[in-house]
Amino acid sequence: MSQSLPPHPTVEALKKQAKQLLSAQRSGDAGACSTLRTLRRFAEAPDADILAATLSLTEVQFALAMDYGFENWTAMKQRVEAGPTGPARSVTVSGQVTSAATDQSIEGVEVRVQAQAMYLTPLAYACTVTDAAGSYECRLEWNGSDRPDVLVQCRHEAFKLRCIDAGEQEDNSDVPRQLTPGQRLQRDVQLSEGFTLELRVEDEEHLPVEGAEVTILADDGMTVSHRSLRDHLTGTTGLPPALLTDAHGRLRIEGLSAAVPDGYQYVLEVDHNQYVTHMLLGIDKLPRKGAVTQVTVRLERGRRLTGRIIAANTDRPIEGAEVRYVYYPYGIIPNGRPRPCCEKAFTDPHGHFELGLPQEIVGPLTVSHPAWQSAEVILGDRSLAEPITIQMLPGHVVTGQVLDRDGRPAGDAEVVAVTMGAPHGKILNTARTDGQGLFKLGGLPVDQRVWLAAKDGADSYVCFGVREVRPGEDHVVLDGREVVEVDGSVVDEAGQPVSVRVACFVHAPLDQSGCMLSRANPSDRLGHFRAVVPRHGGVLLSLSSHDDIFSSPFFNVVTVTTRDGRLDRPLTIRAEPTYEQALRLVDAVDGQPIAEADITLSPVHLWYGMWGGTSNEAGTLVIDHLPPGDAEVFVVAKGYQPLIEHPITVPTGQPHALRLTPKA
């Protein structure tokens, strides 16, 4: 169990204690070992190994903070400097950890218990390990709130990580229960089967890569992944730190679920600014040694692009510009849904950047900056041996204020600027409001209309305003009282509501395309939907199945106009069925089919829509559940020139032939 801070602690006294602890370890005093065992690498080490190890003062300070019940030295230092902020409080949390499959107790589970106040402010922290009976007990002490959240997190290499609220009320109220002084809470925890990933990242010469950032997602193949596991792997409060490989290129991740839901699979993404992003699918299907899966990932350096970003009007360097290249790595199309990778870099004070690119380059290089208009460059077969120079034009700046639905300033709202140009609308820039709801948004085109949309920073379903901004307009107010929620329904041929929940996205009214401005919470009534639209003006609504967009039995895109909050048409929409489209790839020279080519199809009127897959031995791919209308096809195949933005209208009524040109 963790010890408690002395009655009147000071930072200087704690620093002195850490130095004394380090001195004791270096002199061979075994009394230092109990505190140093709070470090993970010494958790089960004998005294001799701990006393023989080389330790820094920072490590000892961390161990001392853990022993006092804090997550790190900084948290303990902040608490001591703040001093007591209220009456002394304490709670003891105990219980038993068992297997959900067998009900047997689990020994060796790391149990972390934390009391935290509003806004995830940590009050107290303790950590222990379950005994042979699976039992644990932790005591927390703090000053102040008598209604904290008391969280219990359990970690073990053979079980899925689990976190519960030990202080929740029996009626499931959102308000934490009031704790009495010295109260004891009994919380038993059951864990389901899980596994641990031991990862090694190396380069092409088999040397370890330090500082590679690792992300694990349980992905259903949509272009926007969800069910992120990263937030649940560290046990820290607030924004978790990145998962990075150590000096040996290694990283150990516990708590992954062994039971992945149908239609999902794990996607492992490894990113480093000196290498090309690597993705690995289905790590949950790999063989294990006991509960441990061992994986080695080899990163490729790819091609290096260097360059300089300058102002078009003065040739002066632009610092802080983001250079980004988004691509779909060959052979990585999980469940037939393309999944993008992104390589990016930022310019230094001299405007210089260096970016790693894959061997196959398909699509544009984009450059953005808060004060400059976005620039786009098609690299194609350009030689990367020489640095590239990209010019940016000064951007228009718009200031304004966001008000919520009650007319009050909306702090921490997200403001998004969207282009009005066809054929593809795109997000130009984003900004966050301050405590008074004020924002400043730059980098906008000076001679082009844009749309601004404001959303709650914590809940994208809450829209505070949608407004068109014309050239020369430099101050706007996005008023949540000026948006209108309207209801509608999607019906079948018999006029009955379709038997699925409906997703409704609101887009800027572009020519056959658009970027999302708002969305509303889906209705639980089958076939019904709600849309958030401006009180005046026209927008596009895209309608599909909420539960599975890419297998939706219908897709509709409709234009609506509001005048003083009233619609120009009824919102009873007849479902437009989806279609199947066959694509066939052939060699442009000899007409032979091309197998194992990655194909992506993107309808031009859907900001989120990308379908795809890999061609079979006959060079054919059949894609189903496609919305009707114009689309663009992208193809990457080894040994062939990539096919970019090939136009097609779905459905064609017959297999559509795509001819690829062999590389010289």
From TrEMBL:
InterPro entries: CarboxyPept-like_regulatory. This is Carboxypeptidase regulatory-like domain-containing protein.
